[in-house]
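tool=predict chain=A
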Amino acid sequence: MASPAIAGTTLLGNYLTTHQIAKLLGFSERTVANWIDRGHLLAFRTPGGHRRVDPGELRNFLRGRGMPIPRELADDFRVLIVEDDPLVARTLKGYLDSSGAGYQVTTVRDGVSALIHIGSTKPHLVILDILMPGMDGLEVCRKIRSSALLKDVRVLFLTGYSGVDPDAVRADTGACGVVLKPVRGDEFRGLVDQALGLGIPGSPA
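tool=predict ok
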């Protein structure tokens, strides 16, 4: 099931009012209006002069300031799982599908297919198996990082090898982290939430 909508709107495909944003984030409407009027939060005005904000722009604003993104804004997060083992891929997809966050989850089995999908859909998060036949996950990540158009795509690595140094991998690739397989559903969902910056307003990002 999808994330609960804010009263008066479904977030996916609709614009938010300053009242809805204030309620969602725990700020005053005046604060939200100031963000907009000062050009910090992109918005437009209706013919009646009311401010309206695209949910994607609100996510960009929050992420750019290190603020947690409420789960209600996760309805259109696109997640790509790149895993050559079909059983593992189905399991990981099931973990996210059952989370209630409304993620749009796609799975592919190799690096070339991943790059094609990434280029056409620009997912918010790519979950990459490090060792795959042909192009491995490290190479896929480097190609993502080499494109200015994909600079906002986040990467989370998967590996079944305990000898991998997560700090070295993050430093080399700019990835959010490394997940050791097998991984429990609650742990995996937590790592995905963390990579996407999801959290409770007022909590650490």
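The chain is about 40% helix and 15% strand. The first strand starts at residue 44 and ends at 45.
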